[in-house]
Amino acid sequence: MAMDIEKTIRSYAKIYRKALVGGKVNGIDDEIATYEKRLGEMYNSETFQKHSSYPSTNAVHVYAVIAMCLGLKHFGLSDPQIIDIINSGFSARRKLFKRLLRCIDMMPNAYQIARKWNISDHDKRVEDGSLTYDYFKVSEGKIEYCISKCVYVEMFETYGIRSLCKIFCMTDTTSYENLTRHVKFIRHSDLSDGNCCHDEVIEKQRKRN
Question: What would the pLDDT profile of 80-92 be if each residue is shown by its tens digit?
């Protein structure tokens, strides 16, 4: 599907501006102009063409975030500071998603929904090759997997900021923080700063009378 690059860049520039204002960064207008130019060049690159070939991965969104990270790096900010500033720009989206998760959390079959999400995501990732699983184990009341290669990490690594892929690695942990009634999520490691992404998704046992 063809992308309206200019419209997409303007949309993400608004989000970035909100993040910069919230982060009290100086020279916002100049930084936004630089961001729009940078993101346009990134979208027109061969690496974007390569990374956008995975249907299960929204490379348009990931590249927009990478461009924000590169801009904030120039201000000498630490990784945690950059992550907090960027997340603040997407706060409206995050709040909507959290509300949805909290509604699901109230359902007695919340774990079964999470189980289906994980299996479906695994199947899509394996099909398009965006993730490489060392193993993906589904047992009664538990899913455990280990990922040794990830196109998200590859995209960030291409621009020399692998550690900032933590922004996307944190998506799982922040999601499961809103599914606590029936689901326990354990993250042993992730690929932003480790050798693999090793997670467990466990059904919490119902209390017996």
Answer: 999 999 999 998 8
Nearest residue to 110 (alpha-carbon basis) of 123, 101, 119, 118? 101
**Maximum separation of any 2 CA atoms in the chain, in Å:** 63
Question: b vs e for 71-94, b when ≥16 Cβ sit within 10 Å of the residue's Cβ?
Answer: bbeeeebebeebbebbbbbbeeee
Nearest of 206, 204, 187, 184 to residue 196 by alpha carbon: 187
Three-class secondary structure of residue 91 per DSSP: helix
Sheet holding 142-150, edge to edge: 131-139, 142-150, 197-203, 183-189
Residue 34 pLDDT greater than 90, yes or no = yes
Tokens matching residue 36: 């729009």
3-class DSSP state of 115: helix
Provide the whole-model pTM.
0.92
The count of residues in the chain is 209
Residue given tokens 């998506």 in the structure block? 171
| CB proximity list for 126: less than 8 A, separation 6 or greater | 133
Instruction: Check residue 135 and give left, alpha or beta (phi > 0: left; psi -120 to 50: alpha).
Output: beta
pLDDT digits (tens, 9 = 90+) for 117-163: 999 999 999 999 999 999 999 999 999 999 999 999 999 999 999 99
